[in-house]
Amino acid sequence: MNNPTPHDRVVADQGGTPDTTLPIVVYALHLAGIITGGLTSLIAVVMAYVYRGKGPAWLDEHYRYQIRTFWIALLYFAVSGLLTLVVIGFLTWLAAVVWLVIRCVKGLKALNERRAPDDVDTWLF
């Protein structure tokens, strides 16, 4: 049997579910990173690192998902940047953008349903 953490007790004492505003902001910053060249994604990953471990397990899984999304996206976009030298990088960059959007939408959907995202450890969606 799991013992509730102090934060779980505070949430229970407040009589509600944990605030999901911050994870929503992190997902939005990841999406804005498409336009800002990744600057807002960098802010998002710092926020996810700071706030992980401070909520219920399903919410912590969102932060873990967001952190993994940042590092995998960094790899995908770096490879795409290198591949632009042989023209195919533009297609892989587009695929990386689609991948990022799908991952963020899936995360937001799971967050809205107050559950952990599916397949947190996957490299795909």
Report on this structure:
With 125 residues, the protein is mainly alpha-helical. The protein has one domain (18-112). It has helices at residues 6-14, 21-36, 39-51, 57-83, 89-112. Mean pLDDT is 87; it is low at 4-15. It is found in: Membrane. Its main location: membrane. The chain crosses the membrane at residues 24-51, 72-102. It holds the Pfam family MamF_MmsF.
Number of helices: 5
Helix coverage percent of residues? over 70%
Quaternary structure type: single chain
The count of domains is 1
Q: Give, in order, the helices and strands.
A: HHHHH
Distance between the termini: 32 Å
Rough shape? elongated
The profile of the biggest β sheet is:
none
**Average pLDDT score:** 87
Computed CA radius of gyration, to the nearest angstrom: 16 Å
> What's the total count of β strands?
0
Strand content: under 5%
Structural class: mainly alpha
Instruction: Report low-confidence residues grouped into runs of 5 or more.
Output: 4-15
Question: What brief labels describe this structure?
Answer:
about 70% helix, single chain, about 120 residues, about 0% strand, elongated, mainly alpha
Summarize the structure.
This protein has 125 residues and is mainly α. The protein is built from five helices and no strands.
Helix-strand blueprint:
Blueprint: H1 6-14, H2 21-36, H3 39-51, H4 57-83, H5 89-112
Helix pairs in contact: 2-3, 2-4, 2-5, 3-4, 4-5
